[in-house]
Amino acid sequence: MELLELRKRIEAIDARILQCLAERRDIALAVAQAKANQTSGVRDTEREAALLLQLMDQGAEMGLDAGYLTRLYHIIIEDSVLMQQAWMQDSDNTGTLTIAHLGTAGSYSHLAAQGYASRRKCQLQGLSCETFQDVLKAVEDGRSVLGILPIENSTSGSINEVYDLLRHTHLHIVAETYLSVEHQILVREGQETVPVKTIYGHPQAIAQCARYLSHLDGVNVVACPSSAHAMEKVANSDEPGVAALGSQSGGALFRLIAIANNLADQPENQTRFILVQRHSAHVPQQLPARTSLIMATHNQPGALADALIILRQHDLNLIKLESRPMPGNPWEELFYIDILVHEQSPQWQAALKELKTMTRFIKVLGCYADERVKATHVIHPERAPGN
Questions:
Q1: Tens of pLDDT along 260-286?
Q2: Strand, helix or coil for residue 208
Q3: To the nearest whole percent, how much of the chain has pLDDT over 70?
Q4: Residue-level pLDDT at 350
Q5: 56's torsion region: left (phi>0), alpha (psi -120 to 50) or beta?
Q6: Do 294 and 255 have their domain in common?
Q7: Is the full-model pTM beyond 0.70?
Q8: How many structural domains is the chain composed of?
Q9: Conformational region of residue 95, where left means phi above 0, alpha means psi within -120 to 50, and beta covers everything else
Q10: Average of pLDDT values for 65-80?
Q11: What distance in Å separates the CA atoms of residue 184 and residue 245, rounded to the nearest whole number?
């Protein structure tokens, strides 16, 4: 009974923590509303640093480790920043948000869409699609307001199929979102001790867990259209020894149990998703912005270098350069470029005007809020080297 009572007390504390987190979110949203007419950015990193130092001092008096508090508040601050950015871009957008995504409920694309809708205080109405091309078509046809596509992963790199599709669509990139991906081996209940003979997974998940999978002797790895397909296949199978690569939350939807976790080759395994729609987005000046474009240079020595020099001359920060073969033109390439700049800024408009005169083809895919939230790091004076 004493153990039961202790557990009840923990549950009561957890309920209060949840209530406080929800209240903090509401206040953070009010802060964004108060900043709406200001020209300063959403983040105040100096205030964040002061807050972390204050929390370290308060936590020390309560016996709480500074590292633990820092990790916890990095997550809380990131959530606040992303929610404030979402409100500033979408204003009073409430209700239901229709997003086309790869796979059914439980796929990584579906989980990313859920997170995107949640930050906008919207209910997700997901539209399941079989392929990335189907996601684009659902938006082009008007069956979905938005489409979400994975475009790169911190472990396996760029998703080339998506880059190739962007060239042929008239849709605009209007947002990005990041999902921390933790792959697990999932089996049906009662199969936990049965040796695994076959593992189903999406090709990207398989690539991200290549090192782990390569050490499994006698196990057949089979690619599926999505992680949700893999989990559903295992859930509906009567065959012993079958498993799926998927997430914990996705596995719960299919009543699957994890027998191995944290399988990605890199410990910090994140996937970046882009969201597309038929109309371009307006990014408030207070938000950091990313502009994406496709460019084909003339087939002559130094052509790409000349184009990149223009970006440098206009003091533009190039953060992504991806090359893809140009269909029908052997040994020629298209370049996908991401720049940290607002599309309407004078420096970008001047650079774009120059680029148009020296390239064979250029297409701006979209300008949207940059959702990378870098953690604020502080060193407590008493913990600084030499003290």
A1: 988 988 878 889 999 999 988 888 877
A2: helix
A3: 90
A4: 95
A5: alpha
A6: no
A7: yes
A8: 3
A9: left
A10: 84
A11: 6
Sequence-distant (6+) residues with CB within 8 A of 253 are 105, 106, 231
φ/ψ bin of 145: left (φ > 0), alpha (ψ from -120 to 50), beta (otherwise): alpha
Annotated binding site: 7, 24, 35, 44, 48, 80, 84
- Residues forming the annotated binding site for substrate? 7, 24, 35, 44, 48, 80, 84
Q: Which amino acid is at 210?
A: A
Give the model confidence (pLDDT) of 94-103 as tens digits.
Answer: 577 889 999 8
What is the Cα–Cα distance from 205 to 226, expressed in whole angstroms? 9
CA dihedral 304, 309, 311, 316 (to 10 degrees): 130
**Residue 66 covered by a domain:** yes
Read off the CATH number of the domain in which 306 is found: 3.30.70.260
Q: Which two tokens stand for residue 307?
A: 């184009």
Q: Calculate mean pLDDT across residues 156-178.
A: 91
Predicted confidence (pLDDT) per residue in 211-256, tens digit: 999 999 999 999 998 899 999 999 999 999 999 999 888 888 899 9
What's the full length of the chain, in residues?
387
Other C-beta atoms closer than 10 Å to the C-beta of 275 total 26
CA distance 186 to 173: 34
Q: Which residue has the tokens 């913990």?
A: 383
Question: Is 152 in contact with 159 (CB distance < 8 Å)?
Answer: yes
Residue 83 lies in a domain: yes
Q: Are 209 and 265 in contact (CB under 8 A)?
A: yes
Find where tokens 């064979």 sit: 360
Q: Which of 74-88, 127-141, 292-306 shows the lowest per-residue confidence on average (mean pLDDT)? A: 74-88
- Sequence-ordered alpha helix ranges (H) in the chain: 2-35, 45-61, 66-90, 108-119, 132-140, 160-166, 203-208, 210-214, 227-235, 248-253, 303-313, 346-358
Q: Which domain holds residue 16?
A: 2-90
Three-state DSSP at 320 gives: strand
DSSP character string of 59-125? HHHTT--HHHHHHHHHHHHHHHHHHHHHHHHHTT--EEEEEEEESSTTSHHHHHHHHHHHHTTEEEE
Judge if 60 and 19 occupy the same domain: yes
